[in-house]
# Entry
Amino acid sequence: MTGFSPHDELRHPDAAVEAWWWWGSGTVPDVGSVGLFVGLELRGHRFDYWAGLVREDEPYLYVEELDGTGLRAGLEIKPPEMWAGHDCDLAFRQWSLGNEAHGVLLDDPTEAWRRAHGDPVPVTFDIEWHATDGATPLDDLVPGASGYRQVGEIDAVVELLEGPLHVVGPAERVHVWGAAHLPTSFAMPMDLRGLRAPYRRSDGGLVDQVLTVAGGRARWHVAAQRGS
# Structure
């Protein structure tokens, strides 16, 4: 870890914008490759929140709350009809993430960029995120922003109508404060044959994410796009 303190893991009250993202993936028996992500961006007392689950040969399960209200203490949010919590259990070592929400199943993942119309389903995420290396500074920040990325592992259970899905595997995360930021590629080539998990932002930005596999490890490629 370089130049960061345990306090940097938590909210920076003076920051106009602050955001966290977590990604994880694994291979599940009888399911195949699985990926999931959670993102939270704070702007004062309002926020954007996203969560998604991608599986081979299954619709994309997408959860969003754009320009939401209901920010509580720490990183807990409680907008109408959903809840999500993000707890730093041990700085730069462990996070616990969870949500209880209704998502939509999208046969076309890019529908998340438009009206996100799909079959509504209840879903619960319960994620333990553990670091496997130290945090490293991001090198693609705009002036006025600070932040870092870190690799790790997840142990997650996603409760679905058909039963729980247990995902264990490699993970990454990013935390940025001070200016708006869109995570970009973790040095992975774009591969549309992977599992896509796009999302939209309340400012009209569109973000594409693809779960790819290289060297026997599943990783996220994040390609930020602009426009609406």
